[in-house]
Amino acid sequence: MQLGRKKKQTIETVLYTLPAIILVTVMMYIPFVMSGYYSLTEWNGIAKEPVFIGFDNFITLFSKGSDFAKSLIFTARYTVVFMIVANVFALALAVILVKKLRTANILRGIFFVPYIMSMTIVGFIWKFIFSQGFAKMFEMTGLEFLNLSWLGDPKLAFYSVAFVGIWQSVGFYVVLYIAGLQAVPSDVLEAATVDGANGPAKFFRVTLPLLGPSITTCIFMSLTNSLKVFDIILALTKGGPGGSTYSVTLDIYREAFQNNNYGLGAAKSLVFFLIILVLTQLVLKGSRNKEVDI
Amino acid sequence: MTRKQKKQCKMILLEVIMVILALVYIYPVYLMFINSVKPFGEVVADVIALPKVIEWQNYKDVIDKMNYGKLFLNNVVITTIGIIGIVAFSSATAYILDRRPGKYTRIAHLLVITPMLIPFQTIMITLLKVMNVIHLTGSTWGLGIQYWGFGIPMATFIYCNFMKTIPKEIDESAFIDGASTAKTFTSVIFPLLKSVTATVVVLDVMWIWNDFLLPLLMVNSSPKTKTLVLSAYTFVGQFNTQWHYAMTAMVLAVLPSILFFILLQKNIVEGVVAGAVKG
């Protein structure tokens, strides 16, 4: 009787968890393992069998002047700019928006609106602004920067894409920082005031260190999100002009689904996986070490 | 001026600056809206001015050309199927993983959570092949089911963290009353998970509704199965010189999200914060 009950419990445990395990296996693990296999082959997706070619794909990837190397450089630059600007700007906004402003709630809502819109549409909106909108504003104001080719010039296009990416998601980081700021105990801040600390000192010596967990979360999220940038670029520049906004994810997509080099695409996607894995672990470790507890 | 008055002045100044900043920030969205109701000539002549006449014909044309009703329904079907599966499987899994500690559950836990580390782009090439084999491509319900696999790791992770805070005595007393595991879960535990379920629903609705790459790979071949964003993408590409139609299509694509946000602002913001902090 006792044994029967235990057996029944075990079956139950397996039954409850099995759907999740099967789904995750079919959607994630099997494709992942297959990517590993195809990365060692030459295969165009249609023709017969994939041909095993060892590590040739990985050698091609890092050969001089390859698209992949260029896309890595763009993605690295994009990630650095995105992480710094988005976090600093969001933190600044959050610090202001936790103050007792009459319109604070509406303002928070406004900054959050772009985040709930599809990134593809956000890309299109800005494409319209950069071309039609800026042209008209230049006509009206004569401000020279409005007359620049923000999407047509390779140097400027980088900043346009980064700007739109940041514009879309700043609201998300603002909300996280606000939650963090609200959790900073007010008695600690009062104690600092009593001890004679002024505004900036209070912020940098008390608030910022106590904000550790929020900063970790935001840095982590901004890192993974910017490394994976895709939709916005596809809508804004399609990787151009002259490959100046060509991201790793776009390169993987093109290689596989437009050039039909599934093998090479799979190799790229694995390298991308390793890069994300290593960077996120490093960042998590690095910023967790800096967190302080009260 | 006293110190207090000075401080008040400063606050008012700050408020004014912030309001201006916010208006500039949201100006592109405003421009999209006003240009979506202008006739073509007016968009070309002046994108900034308010429309002289409101041209609802744009909306009639675009709704017709895009087959908007069908697209909207597709999005609802995909999102609903996705959410129901993610919530049901993740919550049940998390319940058992937390309540039956042992060798099996430890391994199961690791197996279900680990895929959070795999970026979608790493598996998308071979995923398409696998989904073709099991016939989940080319249909809205198939796409909805696919979201189960991608949503479960994160959702289970969030549910697991919350399960720990529900005292075991609660299910024990239900067992003593003779309730089965299924009964305990559905009528005692699941209702207690309400706040986490809200978080999971908010995060996953925003994700699935606006997702681009997975639908592009799986349901792009027929206009009958396309999603709203996917169709807007094609439409804007086709009408990229007819900005009035493009703008209207863009408004129609984002309007549901904006309304969703206005109605549920508080829940959405809370959900996003909870999801990010726990994830």
Q: How would you describe this protein?
A:
The complex is a heterodimer of chains A (294) and B (279). Chain A has 294 residues and is mainly alpha-helical. Chain A is built from 12 helices and 2 strands; from the N terminus they run H-E-E-H-H-H-H-H-H-H-H-H-H-H. Chain A folds into 2 domains: 37 residues, no CATH class; 227 residues, MetI-like fold (Orthogonal Bundle). In chain A, strand 1 and strand 2 form a beta hairpin. Chain A is globular. The N and C termini of chain A lie far apart (53 Å). The model of chain A has no long low-confidence stretch (mean pLDDT 88). The radius of gyration of chain B is 24 Å and the shape is flat. Chain B is mainly alpha-helical and 279 residues long. Chain B folds into 2 domains: 40 residues, no CATH class; 218 residues, MetI-like (MetI-like fold, Orthogonal Bundle). At the A-B interface, helix 1, helix 4, helix 5, helix 6 and helix 9 of A face helix 1, helix 4, helix 5, helix 6 and helix 7 of B.
Quick rundown:
Chain A is mainly alpha-helical and 294 residues long. Chain A has twelve helices and two strands, in the order H-E-E-H-H-H-H-H-H-H-H-H-H-H.
